[in-house]
Amino acid sequence: MKYVVLIYSNPAAWASLPAEEADRVIKVHNDLIDELTGSGEFLNIYRLAHAGNARTVALRDGAPAVTDGPFGESKEVLASLWEIDVDRVERAIEIAEPLTQHATVEVRPLMDAAGMEM
Description:
By secondary structure, the chain is an alpha+beta fold. The protein is 29% helix and 35% strand. The strands form two sheets. The protein has a four-stranded antiparallel sheet. Strands 3-4 form a two-stranded antiparallel ribbon. The N and C termini lie close together (8 Å). 11% of the residues are buried.
């Protein structure tokens, strides 16, 4: 079953981390990517550009309105998403756990091509 692992982080909090801590967390991510690639569970990663490059499109008074930045008032923004293929949701959660250092991580099943929830 395919899942997406969505990693949300606060750019200001991330920027304030000591370099050694940021390097340590990035190493955790890279080591996990290597492990999952070796097991065949890792399918893809999409690193997103800085949230300042985002544009949000929403319907306002019947017309599309475009605003700068990510949606909502949250300080955390979507920073990265991983596509994984595992046999059960518990494994997807196990993969997500080490990624929660200085981030919030969401695990969600991907829908199949017909659009049906899996």
